[in-house]
Design brief:
The complex is a heterodimer of chains A (259) and B (541).
Chain A (H helix, E strand, L loop, with lengths): L6 H28 L7 H9 L25 H7 L4 H7 L4 H4 L18 H13 L5 H7 L4 H13 L13 H5 L9 H5 L16 H13 L9 H8 L2 H12 L6
Chain B lengths: L4 H28 L10 H35 L7 H23 L13 E2 L2 H31 L7 H33 L4 E3 H34 L7 H14 L16 H13 L1 H21 L7 H5 L5 H23 L5 H4 L3 H31 L6 H27 L20 H27 L31 H20 L8 E3 L1 E2 L5
Parallel strand pairs in B: 1-4
Antiparallel strand pairs in B: 2-3
Helix pairs in contact in B: 1-2, 1-3, 1-13, 1-15, 2-3, 2-4, 2-5, 2-6, 2-13, 3-4, 4-5, 5-6, 5-7, 6-9, 6-13, 7-9, 7-16, 11-13, 11-14, 13-14, 14-15
The chains are: A mainly alpha (259), B mainly alpha (541).
Chain lengths: 259, 541
């Protein structure tokens, strides 16, 4: 085991072993016990250094803020629930939706959004928010009030399965869509709403009704709609000028739908 | 002429073709986010390009160089013929198919996750499968290296294993063990999510496993350059290697210390306890030992050469060295970049200092200076050194090759010094564009423009490399003789058994990995708070 065949080699192994032991003593015992938050004995110090923290104690108690924008959180359980719907059962339930949102999820009126092809998590969240009153609309709140989690998932599956409208020939996306406005802390719309990417709960906006989009941007700006989980839409919409809101609704809303 | 020269040439040409394409992307990226570019930013295209650049240059290019150089060493330092050449070609084809598959997936626009994967981002499964294929192909090579040395030792009992072969097998063993981390991450965590069998992923465990690979892979890239330092450079300079035994100690230290240090890439990750971060800092500091041994041995070897060539006085031997030989020049330039980059690395690996530079452009500057600078310039030199033996034509010309090396050196400094500076000013890395009209960052603009110019100097150098290599494939023929390696001053003294084989050191590497990674990996089985929903980067209509 000794590469040098003399006492120097043995010393080398000894020094290496000492360095390892010293590193353990310093890193797992001494340094963690010096931390300002250090409490408890040696064993607690070792546990903290290994990344295990006591989950009890007053400092770690969390309380929910008084006003929660939505009760939906995109954890694994919610995503599974939102994806668990049965489109067949959803189609039966959706008979009551057709009056405003169209038999195939394409709304005949500009004031109501198209639902065809929306990802299941989008419809799931909005229906849940109507049911809990986090998003307010007299018609939709009464429609959603009696729905169970499973029925909401079924409806979401039904609308997700309907063919979405085709995006039209795109004009060049405005800078706000592509790049946002970093000076005003506005993220690019396209990062969450397409065509660059999509986040859970964020609807793809291509081909949505123009008047509906404008109304929602205004509602977010005024705070009358407030079910965005991290306030991101309220922050963005407030920073947009009226003409910018018009232009965005126009660009996303311009694509044609087969009716 | 070398045996298996078509095999070695195929590896080098595929490597340099991949390299040249990626340098074009790199230059474009630097221009696209500098103030020189005034059109609209296209973030989608930018990240696609970064993913292709990183994937090709991290997984494909250095792996092919290590493979090609390894085969060349095998047929010149051990037996005249490679055992298992069929397997070698199969490995090559796997790397080729894997590389093409990954690049197509990236080009299609649904795999912009960058080469470090960043779960829970999820790309097309073809992207990951391509990388897996390329890695499996390289395992064929590693297996052949070990097998060929094993057979040679059987036939030459008690003989000293040539240093070049010893170091090549150390590189192969390092690669096999280090690639296990990313392979496990891809096969068991990422691919099931990418294929759609699962909608959530343990991002913490994924990152821990990736760090297993992430630092040692850097030493895998580095070791071919070190093999050249120890076995080719002293001969090319006209001298002797100062100590064969010291060289062996360096290679086994790299083998042992490369692995248990990867968590220094996770200093900002909350799922790793501070104790392990400290432990990995200590082991990372240990890498200073083989690095300084190398600086010492290499300088001593060059001094021997310089004095044999008539150099006198304290530093007169430096001027006496044959700087017009590409590999000697490359070594000098490489050492300058290694010194600067190594100093920066000591800052990165210090748990407390890292917080200043973590995730800034400083880091990008650091790894470009070390890898793309000091290591890749030695890849060029290795190619120049091998080319006459592979093609049967002399290099055309050494002068042009020296110009190419100088351009690479200057370009790399012009690129990376501003990156270090803007990093200290707080510029985040991995950004597709910056708002240069913002007064808060306007001062960084001129530095970023300057570094973009450096990008085009590098592109020019890459083009020149391809021209030189192509030109040297034709023209008059000249027998370059056998490929030989530097003789050492201590060639006559016996080598201890532990330094004539790698078994002990491989065992030590595995043991240290278990000590330093065992708990951080095991914890994910009882602390399950790192599982998060996947984020697909596939473009959705």
């Amino acid at each position: 085991m000794n590469p040098f065949g003399d006492r120097l080699g043995a010393m080398g192994w000894l020094v290496a072993a000492l360095v390892v032991v010293a590193a353990f003593v310093i890193g797992f015992m001494w340094l963690p016990s010096l931390q300002a938050s250090a409490q408890g004995g040696l064993w607690d110090a070792i546990c903290r250094a290994a990344g295990i923290y006591r989950t009890s104690g007053p400092a770690l108690k969390t309380t929910l803020p008084a006003q929660v924008p939505t009760t939906v959180a995109w954890d694994v359980g919610t995503l599974r629930m939102a994806a668990s719907g049965d489109a067949q059962r959803g189609a039966t339930l959706a008979a009551g939706c057709a009056g405003c949102h169209g038999a195939k999820g394409i709304s005949p009126t500009d004031a109501f959004p198209n639902l065809a092809g929306l990802p299941a998590d989008v419809v799931y969240k909005q229906l849940d928010d109507y049911r809990t009153g986090k998003r307010q609309n007299p018609i939709m709140q009464s429609m959603a009030a009696a729905l169970s989690d499973q029925q909401i998932a079924d409806l979401a599956a039904h609308f997700a399965a309907l063919p979405a409208g085709q995006p039209g020939a795109d004009a060049m996306a405005p800078a706000l869509v592509r790049a946002g406005s970093p000076m005003r802390s506005i993220a690019p719309c396209a990062a969450c709403h397409g065509p660059l990417g999509r986040k859970e709960g964020a609807p793809p906006l291509h081909g949505q009704k123009r008047a509906y989009l404008k109304a929602q941007l205004d509602a977010f700006a005024e705070g009358t709609r407030h079910n965005d989980i991290n306030k991101q839409m309220r922050e963005v919409a407030r920073a947009l000028s009226l003409s910018e809101r018009d232009a965005l609704a126009g660009w996303y809303g311009e694509a044609q739908h087969p009716n | 002429m070398l045996a298996s020269r078509r095999l070695v040439l195929a590896h080098f040409w595929l490597a340099f073709a991949t390299f040249a394409g990626s340098v074009v992307l790199g230059a474009w990226q630097m221009w696209a986010r500098s103030p020189l570019h005034t059109g609209p930013a296209d973030a989608e295209l930018y990240y696609r390009s970064v993913t292709a650049h990183g994937t090709a240059l991290a997984y494909v290019f250095p792996t092919l160089i290590a493979m090609g150089f390894g085969y060349a060493v095998c047929v010149s330092a051990l037996d005249r013929n490679l055992r298992g050449e069929g397997f070698a070609w199969a490995g090559f084809v796997l790397v080729l198919v894997g590389a093409v598959m990954s690049m197509l997936a990236v080009g299609a626009g649904n795999s912009s996750v960058l080469y470090t994967f960043y779960p829970p981002l999820t790309a097309s499964p073809f992207y990951y499968l391509g990388i897996v294929l390329a890695v499996v192909g390289s395992w064929f090579w590693a297996g052949l290296m070990v097998y060929n040395l094993f057979k040679w030792k059987q036939e030459h009992p008690g003989e000293r294993v040539p240093l070049s072969a010893f170091a090549t097998v150390a590189t192969a063993l390092l690669w096999v063990w280090t690639s296990v981390g990313a392979a496990v991450e891809l096969l068991f965590l990422i691919l099931p999510v990418a294929i759609g069998w699962s909608t959530s992923i343990d991002a913490g465990l994924s990152r821990t496993l990736f760090s297993w690979t992430l630092h040692a892979i850097v030493y895998f890239w580095l070791l071919p350059a070190y093999i050249a330092f120890y076995t080719l450079v002293p001969r090319a300079a006209g001298g002797r290697l100062y100590s064969d035994r010291m060289a062996r100690v360096v290679f086994v230290l790299f083998l042992v210390l490369a692995m248990p240090i990867g968590i220094h890439h996770l200093f900002a990750d909350p799922h790793i306890g501070a104790g392990f971060k400290f432990l990995h800092t200590v082991f990372t500091a240990g890498v200073v030992i083989p690095t300084l041994l190398t600086v010492f041995t290499l300088t001593a070897s060059l001094e021997i050469a310089g004095r044999l060539r008539g150099g006198r006085g304290l530093l007169g031997w430096v001027a006496a060295l044959p700087w017009d030989r590409p590999i000697v020049l490359a070594t000098g330039l490489s050492l300058v970049m290694l010194g600067l980059g190594g100093a920066g690395g000591i800052i990165n690996m210090s748990y407390t200092l890292d917080s200043t530079v973590h995730n800034t452009q400083w880091i990008t500057g650091h790894f470009h200076l070390i890898f793309a600078g000091s290591v890749v310039i030695m890849y060029f030199a290795i190619a120049y050194e091998l080319w006459p033996h592979l093609t049967g034509h002399p290099l055309r010309s050494a002068k042009l090759a020296c110009l190419q090396l100088w351009l690479w050196f200057i370009g790399m400094l012009v690129v990376t010094i501003p990156w270090h500076l803007v990093g200290l000013m707080g510029q985040p890395r991995r950004m597709a564009y910056y708002d240069w009209s913002d007064p808060a960052i306007a001062a960084q603009g001129p530095l970023v423009s300057a570094s973009a110019v450096g990008g085009f100097v590098l592109l020019l150098s890459a083009v020149l490399l391809i021209v030189i290599l192509l030109r040297s494939q034709g023209g008059e023929k000249a027998d370059a003789g056998a490929l030989t390696y530097a003789r050492a001053l201590d060639d006559a003294s016996p080598v201890p058994r532990t330094l004539n084989g790698l078994g002990v050191w491989f065992g030590l590497m595995v043991a240290l990995t278990i000590i330093n990674y065992g708990y951080p990996i095991a914890q994910s089985f009882f602390l399950q708070h790192n599982t998060v929903p996947r984020q697909s980067v596939t473009i959705s209509p």
